[in-house]
Amino acid sequence: xxxxxxxxxxxxxxxxxxxxxxxxxxxxxxxxxxxxxxxxxxxxxxxxxxxxxxxxxxxxxxxxxxxxxxxxxxxxxxxxxxxxxxxxxxxxxxxxxxxxxxxxxxxxxxxxxxxxxxxxxxxxxxxxxxxxxxxxxxxxxxxxxxxxxxxxxxxxxxxxxxxxxxxxxxxxxxxxxxxxxxxxxxxxxxxxxxxxxxxxxxxxxxxxxxxxxxxxxxxxxxxxxxxxxxxxxxxxxxxxxxxxxxxxxxxxxxxxxxxxxxxxxxxxxxxxxxxxxxxxxxxxxxxxxxxxxxxxxxxxxxxxxxxxxxxxxxxxxxxxxxxxxxxxxxxxxxx
Length: 335
Fold this sequence. Notes:
The chain has helices spanning about 15-25, 25-30, 50-55, 70-85, 105-110, 125-140, 150-160, 165-175, 195-205, 225-235, 240-255, 265-290, 320-330, and strands spanning about 5, 35, 90-95, 115-120, 180-185. The protein is an alpha/beta fold.
C-alpha cells in the first residue's frame, strides 16, 4: 500500500518553500517514487502549488470561503486513480489550511483505508506570531486587532478559528488519526539541516532524494524590517487603487534594502509568550520526539539587552505626493 503524507503546516514555517519545491520538481520526484498529486490543488497562480481545493472540500476553507468544486467521494476517487497510475511509493499532500480549527474526523474518513502520516512543523511562538503579524501588516488595510501578540492571538483564535496552542492542535489530530500517525518537527534552522527540504524528505523516509533535484535556498516570504512594514502599512492606507498598492508593496519587498529587520517585539514580550507555552513544548518534545529533556526548541531565549525594532506605528496617511517622495528617497535611494 502506498504511503500518504499529509503536510498540514503550520503557516509561516516554510510551507511555501516546501510547496514550491514539490510543485516545481513534481516530474523529477515522481521518477524517484514521490508523487505530488495534481488532484486537489488550487486552480491558478500560487494556488497551484498547494492542495487548497482538497482542504476546502474537507471543510478547511475560511468560514466565508467558496464552496468546493467536487464532493469528497469524487475527489477521493480521482486521487486514488492518480496514486495508482503513478506507481509511486509515497504521496505528499500539502496545505496549511488544515491548521484551522475544523473537524479532523472528516479528514480521517476521507483517507480511510490508507497508510497515512500527518506532518506538522511547529515554530517557537514568539517568532511564529511575530511573523504572522508582519504578514498581516503587509496584506491588511487596517488589522482588526490591537497590535500586540496577545491581541493577535485572541483574534485568530476567536474570529478565524485558528489553533494557537500546539498541544490542543496535536491532541485534536491525534484523536482523529492516532498519536502514532502524527509526526512533529520543530521549525528551526539548526534543527532543519542542511535545509528544510532535506529535513522534510528525511522525515517522510526519503533522505537524500534532494540530491537528484534542485533545492532553492532563497526564501519565498522574506522577513521585513520595521521600516519596510511601516511603509507597506502606509501604502494600504492611501487612496491609491488596489492594483497600484499591490505594485508598490511588491517593489518594497523586492527592492528595498535591509529587509531583514530586528525583532518587532521586546525581549520581555517574547519571553512572556514563550513562558505561556513552555509546558506544551515539554509535553510535545517528550510525547512526539522522545526527548527526555523536554527541549522542543534549541534557539537561545531572548535576553533583556537584545535590541528590537518595535511595531510600526503608521500614524496618519501621507498624501500621495509626500508618500511618493518617501518611497523614492528613503526606500529606493533615488532623488
